[in-house]
Amino acid sequence: MRPWILIAAAALVAAVILLRGGGHADGMNARVLRDVDGDTLLAGSGGRRFYVRLLGIDTPETHRPGRPVECGGPEASAHMRRLAPPGTRVRLETDPTQDRVDRYGRLLAYVWLPGGRLLEDEQLRSGWAESYVFEGRPVSRYSRLLASERAGRSARRGVWARCAGRFHSAL
Length: 171
What we know:
Layout: H1 3-20, E1 27-35, E2 40-45, E3 48-54, E4 57-58, H2 73-83, E5 89-93, E6 107-112, H3 119-125, E7 130-131, H4 142-154, H5 159-162
Parallel strand pairs: 3-6
Antiparallel strand pairs: 1-2, 1-5, 2-3, 4-7, 5-6
Helix pairs in contact: 3-4
């Protein structure tokens, strides 16, 4: 085989790999194994188990070492269990503007529920989450998430009602 054909084939493969990371095409199907709290779950796919941290939102803490349980934390966790109970099939989608894994080894991903609902939107609209920007880098769906947060706040749902909007206040 001629060397230029090998070089062209290698360039084509490299281009496909690089382009695959753009937009929101990078994702996988998974099954929820356990809900950890309001913004983290344990999922499984292809025989692997891994923790998933929902992108672009933050919920009151329930399991953070050295910190008390925060107002709305148990309710945010319970709402997550209702939305995505163990066995739920989900689509996990990374964001090209964010790291793929956080410092705790969790996959950072949007979580799509059956019927095309975004789990992050559901937590925000219910008032059990607030939009979150990590290290000054908003997620690519930030405007959408902010609109969902505003809907929960204006309807005085979740933490907006129960905790006067103070997401990280102790119980």
